[in-house]
Amino acid sequence: MKKKDMIALIVAVVIVLVGGNLFIKTRVAVSENRLASNINRAVQNKDGKLFLKQFSKDNQNIKFSDIGAQSVVKDLHDNATDPTSEIGKIITDGRTVAGTKVDYRFTVESRRVMGLFTSYYLTTRKSPVQITNYTGYGDDMTVKMTSGGKSQTVTKSQLSSGLFPGRYDFDISSGGEDDGSYWVRPAGDGDTIELTVTSY
Q1: CA distance linking residue 31 with residue 118, whole number of Å
Q2: Global pTM value
Q3: Which of 8, 78, 133, 148 is the most buried (most CB within 10 A)?
């Protein structure tokens, strides 16, 4: 191989390595500042999908997490007394945002990308929901989640497996009668929520 070709090859390899590292650092690895910025953007735009993307894959895969995430950004946007532009920093610092319906519990964790860069993301704990039926109809109960403009039947086992933080609305009926509308609001602390169903 000629000296000129060798130099060109070395230059090409250096460009690929530098470009690859730059791509990973700016596009794949998420700095704490970028994480805070993404959270701010999600809250300002009430973008539950973007907010949910800031969490670990396990958290993203929690059943109904899209509904919870959307309600969290709405709550943060509509009710926080802290400036919207500071919410991301508050969360990444491990503090709670003032003025919201509950004190959401989010934790910042990190992982190594390609063994070179540190990438930051959020985690939370899912809260099991235990339904106690005091209508006199035993376990003959239908639970429909009405959050997010949908009406979907959910099982007691799905609820007891835990919900992502946020507000979840339900219409519950037992024994063929409508027992009313209920809601729960997990905070991300992992505590079990007791939902008591009673007759009118």
Answers
A1: 7
A2: 0.82
A3: 133
